[in-house]
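TICKET #2291
ISSUE: user wants both folds in one file
ATTACHMENT 1:
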Amino acid sequence: MLRIDVELAKHWSDAEVVTQWQKLFKGDSLNHDFIKGEPLEYYQQIIINTRVKEYRSRLMDISC
């Protein structure tokens, strides 16, 4: 059984969210660069911000 502490997940940093997501699904090069702290272009940061919102929502929904 997979469980996520929703209250804890709400407080994960963006990098933690992407890291947790990648434990379940293979990430792409943008996700890997973000986790490594590589500088991102403006448009890449917008993509990451959108992904983090979606990943966090989906990760928290797993435990419901």
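ATTACHMENT 2:
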Amino acid sequence: MVNVFTISNDDLNTIGLGLYLGLSVLDHSCDPDAFVLFNGTKAVLRPLKQYITAYDSSVGILCSTEDFLFKRSILLSVLDHSCDPDAFVLFNGTKAVLRPLKQYITAYDSSLRIAYCDLLDLTSMRRNQLKQQFFFTCECSACLDLEREKTARSVRCRHCVDGYCPLDVNENSLVCWQCGATSEVHVDEAVHLMQQVEWEVKRLQERRNDSICTAKDLYNEASIILSSLNIPLCQLADRIASWGIDNGNFSLAADYIEKTISCFKRFYPTAHPSLSLQYFKAGKLHSLNDLTLELAAERLEQAIESLHASHGVQHSLSAEAHELLCKVQQQRRDLENQRVRPFNFY
């Protein structure tokens, strides 16, 4: 079906499909103005950009610090897609709430843009999905941003700490954007390795209960060459982390979810729910190990700030994250007290 919404739970897992006439008028953008969250079957449009404070059908999917509620969801269906969306939709029961992704969005406008696909994907994959499901070729700013795509395919720089080499398949060499060093890795080698990673990600999607050893070995091999901002590599780490959570291997999940953070921060807008939940999951996983409580507190603080922007201060996830942060901080104080307590010889 065209113009249906995938209804998701608080963990952004799919639980069904819904037709929201109001939301379906919003166009797509890979740089969206807003996004959609769900509370049950209720869709909530949330802004990704600060200037959005009210619904506008020109925006890409929207909402502000205040939720735009759509009981019949007729207005939401006019919003078009963008890979750089203005807003997103949350659901609360049958209520759709439009949330802004950009600060200037303060009202609903039919020019707002929302994302019809996952933003953490290569441009070719996003365009293929949109073409197959919605019958259009996306020409949004994100899809036309060649530097963004080169970064999403980038190779690790072995000559500096924070540098990476953007990959352009039309170039013969890979040059670090920061230090200017030329990578020893050939473009064809990097492209072939990314294809292997993409195949492994697809295999894990289709056969979730398979052994994870092959995926881990491939990640270890690929991470020597591909950068932490390489989207296929990030997707593989995220799949390994999900496998760890599903199979109760939380130390494995904590290790691999941490490898995704820099890529999530780079390619998701600040107020996007996927970034909020990744921070939150990382914080929860790190809180299970006394040795990573400091990192758990850092991730939970980031989660709370991001959840306030994506879901709202009053959302249950915001309260849950704050409660867990308080517990982690208390654990850290208790452990510190145990370390400094003097030994009694008598």
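RESOLUTION: both attachments delivered.
EXTRA DETAIL ON ATTACHMENT 2: Residues 1-144 form a domain with the Beta-clip-like fold (CATH 2.170.270).
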